[in-house]
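Page 42, continued from yesterday. The earlier attempt failed because a stray header line got pasted into the input along with the sequence. Redoing it now with the clean sequence only.
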Amino acid sequence: MASLKDQIRQADDVRYQDDVEIPEWVPGALFRVTGLPSGDWEQYQNKTSKMTVREGRGSGAEMTIKSNKAEIVAKALRDQETGDLVFPDLVEGVAILSKRSAGIVNGLFQLVRHLSDDERDFTVRVRAAEEDFDDAQH
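This time it went through. C-alpha coordinates are written below.
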Protein backbone atom coordinates (compact mmCIF):
# COMPACT_ATOMS: atom_id res chain seq x y z
CA MET A 1 0.00 0.00 0.00
CA ALA A 2 1.36 3.41 -0.97
CA SER A 3 2.11 5.94 1.74
CA LEU A 4 -0.13 8.98 2.15
CA LYS A 5 2.64 11.13 0.68
CA ASP A 6 2.79 8.93 -2.43
CA GLN A 7 -1.00 8.95 -2.75
CA ILE A 8 -1.02 12.75 -2.61
CA ARG A 9 1.82 12.95 -5.12
CA GLN A 10 -0.09 10.69 -7.54
CA ALA A 11 -3.50 12.31 -7.08
CA ASP A 12 -5.05 13.61 -10.27
CA ASP A 13 -6.75 16.59 -8.67
CA VAL A 14 -6.17 19.44 -11.12
CA ARG A 15 -9.48 19.89 -12.90
CA TYR A 16 -9.88 20.70 -16.56
CA GLN A 17 -12.56 21.40 -19.13
CA ASP A 18 -12.48 20.07 -22.67
CA ASP A 19 -14.38 21.24 -25.73
CA VAL A 20 -13.68 24.93 -25.15
CA GLU A 21 -14.23 26.75 -28.42
CA ILE A 22 -12.76 30.14 -29.23
CA PRO A 23 -14.06 30.74 -32.76
CA GLU A 24 -12.72 34.30 -32.79
CA TRP A 25 -9.20 32.86 -32.60
CA VAL A 26 -9.32 29.49 -34.34
CA PRO A 27 -12.69 28.47 -35.82
CA GLY A 28 -13.40 24.78 -35.30
CA ALA A 29 -10.56 24.15 -32.86
CA LEU A 30 -11.21 22.64 -29.45
CA PHE A 31 -9.11 23.60 -26.46
CA ARG A 32 -8.59 22.10 -23.03
CA VAL A 33 -8.46 24.64 -20.22
CA THR A 34 -6.87 23.42 -17.01
CA GLY A 35 -6.94 24.69 -13.48
CA LEU A 36 -3.56 25.56 -12.04
CA PRO A 37 -1.66 23.72 -9.34
CA SER A 38 -1.43 25.46 -5.99
CA GLY A 39 2.11 26.79 -6.54
CA ASP A 40 1.26 28.50 -9.84
CA TRP A 41 -1.95 29.99 -8.46
CA GLU A 42 -0.23 31.29 -5.32
CA GLN A 43 2.56 32.79 -7.43
CA TYR A 44 -0.08 34.69 -9.43
CA GLN A 45 -1.83 35.87 -6.27
CA ASN A 46 1.46 37.04 -4.78
CA LYS A 47 2.17 39.05 -7.92
CA THR A 48 -1.24 40.72 -7.81
CA SER A 49 -0.99 41.54 -4.12
CA LYS A 50 2.28 43.43 -4.46
CA MET A 51 1.62 47.13 -4.60
CA THR A 52 3.89 49.64 -6.22
CA VAL A 53 3.82 53.14 -4.78
CA ARG A 54 4.85 55.96 -7.07
CA GLU A 55 5.08 59.61 -6.29
CA GLY A 56 2.54 61.53 -8.36
CA ARG A 57 2.96 65.05 -9.66
CA GLY A 58 1.93 67.18 -6.73
CA SER A 59 -0.93 64.90 -5.72
CA GLY A 60 0.75 62.47 -3.33
CA ALA A 61 1.34 58.81 -4.14
CA GLU A 62 -0.25 56.50 -6.67
CA MET A 63 -0.66 52.80 -5.91
CA THR A 64 -0.94 50.21 -8.66
CA ILE A 65 -1.66 46.52 -8.43
CA LYS A 66 -0.27 44.34 -11.20
CA SER A 67 -2.58 41.81 -12.77
CA ASN A 68 -1.62 39.62 -15.66
CA LYS A 69 -4.54 37.45 -16.63
CA ALA A 70 -2.75 36.64 -19.88
CA GLU A 71 -0.09 34.76 -17.90
CA ILE A 72 -2.66 32.56 -16.19
CA VAL A 73 -4.40 31.81 -19.49
CA ALA A 74 -1.07 31.01 -21.18
CA LYS A 75 -0.31 28.49 -18.42
CA ALA A 76 -3.73 26.84 -18.73
CA LEU A 77 -4.60 26.76 -22.45
CA ARG A 78 -3.89 23.41 -24.12
CA ASP A 79 -4.46 21.74 -27.45
CA GLN A 80 -7.25 19.28 -26.66
CA GLU A 81 -5.98 16.66 -29.14
CA THR A 82 -2.37 16.53 -27.95
CA GLY A 83 -2.62 17.91 -24.42
CA ASP A 84 0.31 20.22 -25.20
CA LEU A 85 0.39 23.81 -24.03
CA VAL A 86 -0.62 26.19 -26.78
CA PHE A 87 2.09 28.54 -25.51
CA PRO A 88 5.04 26.49 -24.24
CA ASP A 89 7.07 29.72 -24.20
CA LEU A 90 5.28 31.65 -21.45
CA VAL A 91 6.79 35.03 -22.35
CA GLU A 92 5.68 34.69 -25.96
CA GLY A 93 2.23 33.50 -24.86
CA VAL A 94 1.75 36.50 -22.57
CA ALA A 95 2.87 38.84 -25.37
CA ILE A 96 0.37 37.30 -27.80
CA LEU A 97 -2.55 37.11 -25.37
CA SER A 98 -1.97 40.67 -24.15
CA LYS A 99 -2.90 41.83 -27.64
CA ARG A 100 -6.07 39.75 -27.90
CA SER A 101 -9.63 40.60 -26.84
CA ALA A 102 -9.83 41.50 -23.16
CA GLY A 103 -13.26 39.86 -23.02
CA ILE A 104 -12.02 36.52 -24.32
CA VAL A 105 -8.89 36.50 -22.14
CA ASN A 106 -10.95 37.49 -19.10
CA GLY A 107 -13.50 34.74 -19.82
CA LEU A 108 -10.71 32.16 -20.05
CA PHE A 109 -9.15 33.57 -16.87
CA GLN A 110 -12.46 33.17 -15.03
CA LEU A 111 -12.69 29.56 -16.23
CA VAL A 112 -9.13 28.85 -14.99
CA ARG A 113 -10.04 30.49 -11.68
CA HIS A 114 -13.12 28.26 -11.41
CA LEU A 115 -11.16 25.12 -12.32
CA SER A 116 -8.50 26.07 -9.77
CA ASP A 117 -11.22 26.27 -7.08
CA ASP A 118 -10.23 29.84 -6.25
CA GLU A 119 -13.76 31.11 -5.68
CA ARG A 120 -14.68 28.42 -3.16
CA ASP A 121 -14.05 29.19 0.48
CA PHE A 122 -11.64 27.07 2.48
CA THR A 123 -14.31 24.99 4.25
CA VAL A 124 -15.94 23.99 0.96
CA ARG A 125 -12.53 23.07 -0.50
CA VAL A 126 -11.66 20.88 2.51
CA ARG A 127 -15.00 19.05 2.28
CA ALA A 128 -14.53 18.46 -1.45
CA ALA A 129 -10.98 17.18 -0.90
CA GLU A 130 -12.21 14.83 1.83
CA GLU A 131 -14.94 13.47 -0.46
CA ASP A 132 -12.45 12.98 -3.31
CA PHE A 133 -10.04 11.20 -0.96
CA ASP A 134 -12.81 8.95 0.41
CA ASP A 135 -13.92 8.09 -3.14
CA ALA A 136 -10.35 7.17 -4.08
CA GLN A 137 -10.11 4.82 -1.10
CA HIS A 138 -13.09 2.71 -2.22
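Notes: Residues 16-137 form one domain.
Reminder to self: strip header lines before submitting.
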